[in-house]
Amino acid sequence: MDEIHDVVQIGMGSVGLTMAAVMGQTDHSIAVVEKHENLYGLPRAGHIDHEIMRILQSLECHGPVLEDSYPTLEYVWVNADGETLLEFDWGAKGISGWHSDYMQYSPVLEDALAERMRGDPNVDIFQGWAAVELREHDDHVEVVIKKTERVPGVAAPVVTDEARTLRGRYVVAADGANSAVRRWLDIEREDLGFNQKWLVVDARKKRDLHFEFDCGQICDPRRPTTILPLGERHRRWEWALLPGETVEEFERPEVAWRLLGDLGVTPDDVEFVRQLVYTFEARIAQEWKRGRVFLMGDAAHTMPPFMGQGMASGMRDAKNLAWKLDLVLRGLAPAEFLNTYQQERRPHTYDWTVISLEAGKIPGTLDPEAARERDERFRAGWRPPMPDFPQLVGGIMARDLVGQPAAPAGELGLQGRVERDGEAGLFDDLFGAGDQWQVISAVGHPRSVLSDAQIDFLESVGTTFAHVASGVEGDAIDVDGQYAAYFAERGIEVVVNRPDFYVFGGASLEELPALVDELVRQLTVESADQISPVGLSEPESPGDSNLGRPPKEMRTR
């Protein structure tokens, strides 16, 4: 029987590759099981935002993605007559230090992640093997895997009789929406009531193409349509299937060419990469952790694509769980600490799913009268009651006296441009801090107010300390004044950021020792239920703490 791995992971799509690459940065042993012999190689999700680009930056694999991606300036929704209903302003820089939003070609993303993963010697890869059984024990899980082979005429890999057993202290299931692991564990999913079939056509451009808008929705009840770039060299179109239309009909190439012809696109313009009917749905697993097994990505949640947050949510899952597994496997946090994975990620993803559902109601209507009334409301200046973009609301963060996040806790943390030793760049790059805790102060060095014991603890979990100032008195110069503005808007002098870039808490420099004591307590309690308020004070001027990133402005015309 194989030696025990710290983590056995099932699935190697975009989310699984992210998880394996992030865990590969640690000293822990990882086994990755994937039933296909090769990467998928075809486009999946097309949108990433600044937070995801920062995750890729932390893995040092963002270069190829950035080179091929398409920074979007706006996301436009028009009605059947071409009148603009909504514009999402995606032209600003995000709080993570990157452009707000990008459209990308996912095979480039997956190749970059795979190269990063394969460069880590502690990652063992089992491609062409399918997980067929789990056996959980007190201190590990056995994963029975069988060799697969390709059979002519059969789309999916066929499982053979050749078997072996892997053992892992923990198992991560990133095996997609039809997750076998979720089925074996009999974990139910909550259905949020969205189920639509859409034809998706991805194509390689033969020449430059120009449309009334480059990225958006045609909210036509006769045929709702999506138009998107996929990086610099590809494009995607999506069309809703109408009542009575069949999957078989819409997977015929002539149907796709007819629909593209209505948009002025011909075989002289593009060649197909993929044509497939997808079922857009909104479901979320009731449990994301069962014993030593975790669900992530589509295995834990699916959402409509109208806000482009499905894959992004899965990559957030990976970044969240990886740093927690690292602490537990190193003995720096108890096993019960891993319960905060679901406590944090499920509400955050649930909120994104609801936002995607609300957004999908606008282009998705097939009722002409309802569409006419919708258009009239927009002309009159109405705008939909879109919820704020999510931030963390539970788990590892500083809290106020009533148990709510003490602003800016739960927000997505800032990465600004700084100058250090004469070199200017993004904070994570210059401080090597993309996978660490960060304690950043605007008024003095954070170490100056901490005890030796507090510093020792922070160093043991992996922490970067920095004094970022407007002049040369700090560790780094605040090149664009972003940190000064950030601290001033929130009424704080120091911030503690987690390894997944979310804020644990902010305070005055004088209050930092109490904030660190609270962090130590939360990382070492034996149950997530014990993480309760201890009376941390609120900043004097917390600013707008509703969003974990700068809002995407939504305008009506």
UniProtKB/TrEMBL annotation:
Enzyme kind, highest EC tier: oxidoreductase
GO molecular function: 3-(3-hydroxyphenyl)propionate hydroxylase activity; FAD binding
EC number(s) from the headed UniProt entry: 1.14.13.-
InterPro entries in alphabetical order: FAD-bd (IPR002938), FAD/NAD-bd_sf (IPR036188), PheA/TfdB_FAD_monoxygenase (IPR050631)
Domain FAD-binding as annotated: residue spans: 6-349
This protein's UniProt keywords: Oxidoreductase
Oxidoreductase in keyword set: yes
Highest rank taxon of the organism: Bacteria
GO BP term, pick one: 3-(3-hydroxy)phenylpropionate catabolic process
Chain segments carrying region Disordered: 530-557
PANTHER family associated with the record: 3-(3-HYDROXY-PHENYL)PROPIONATE/3-HYDROXYCINNAMIC ACID HYDROXYLASE, FAD-BINDING MONOOXYGENASE
NCBIfam families in the record: PRK06183.1-3
Protein name (database record): 3-(3-hydroxy-phenyl)propionate hydroxylase
